[in-house]
Request: fold
Amino acid sequence: MNTAHRVPPLHDKLPEVGTTIFTVMSRLAQEVGAINLSQGFPDHPIDPAMIDLVDRAMRDGHNQYAPMPGLPALRSALVDKAAKLYGYNYDAETEVTVTAGATQALFTTIAALVSVGDEVIIIDPAYDCYAPAVRLFGGVPVHVPLTASMTIDLEALRAAFGPRTRALIINTPHNPAGTILHASDMQAIAELLRDSDAVLISDEVYEHMVFDGAAHQSAIRYPELRERAFVVFSFGKVFHATGWKVGYVFAPEKLMTLFRKVHQFNVFSVNTPVQHAFAHYLADPAHYDGLSAFFQAKRDHFAQGMKHSRFRLLPCQGSYFQLADYSAISDEGDLAFAERLAREHGVASIPLSPFYHRPPADQRILRFCFAKQVSTLDAAIERLCRI
Reply:
């Protein structure tokens, strides 16, 4: 008699998805001892005051579940911050929710919005969590590429809207492109949405990394956008603590009600002592007011050093990512070149093609993360300039 256990057939809901390129390249960097400029996390320490605040919160007994939407003190601090920066007062009770990082906020937003057959417009190159989340809930990603100069193509975007369009996802400052949306772009997006039933999902996790005197054009600034938008932010990116996995999302009450229905079953609540720490930390705007200058100095340091390399750097207006064209070095595809760069030259990067639904065939671009200590950047620059 056959006593083997029967293995039930499995249906892969994401058959085309493997391990993310970020995990692949960070693992390769560790394997070969390469300098890791691939995955987007800093290698410099966080403010010791934040560690003290978390320690104090834990010692004061704040170790049980937080309220599902987030601690009231933190939500109030977030509303105050948005009002100071973007000129609008959300309701702290009904219009802001603390999340387990920005990716969870994005995933939960898509889960709350998207039904089978709904279309979601995604601007490529795009952060790689958008399209899989749309497909998981039966939606259809509609991909609109940026122009060759990594700016938004408004005509192509207009053509992508249809009767089944449920949402448009924008990202500014943009990962991986390093470009930003300007006031004219936001006004044009508002015009596109005006006669549509689509919801806006605005990914703004790099809000405090906007360079050269530009202002971050949050969807919160624009009433037409704000009234139909989920606006997503991240503490991890802002305060160099990506491993703490805390973010938050603003939305009008009707939209936030939908979000919280999913959030309560997806995560329920988020790390309590860390929420207490951030509530206290946000009381001093100096903790985030200087971040653009801090990261611009790193961008400029990396760019100055790379002038002696054969890489051609694309303009970087925001985020902590620098795109570099390597076509003067090799005709290899970006996946192969990125792997060889790590193995043979000791610097890990991220190839751009995984950010696209259909990557441009002739594109030869890598993404480098410059949110690193100067010593890390200098060591990487030295290796890259020897190629």
The domain at 21-42+290-385 is CATH 3.90.1150.10 (Aspartate Aminotransferase, domain 1). The chain has a mean pLDDT of 95. The first strand starts at residue 35 and ends at 36.
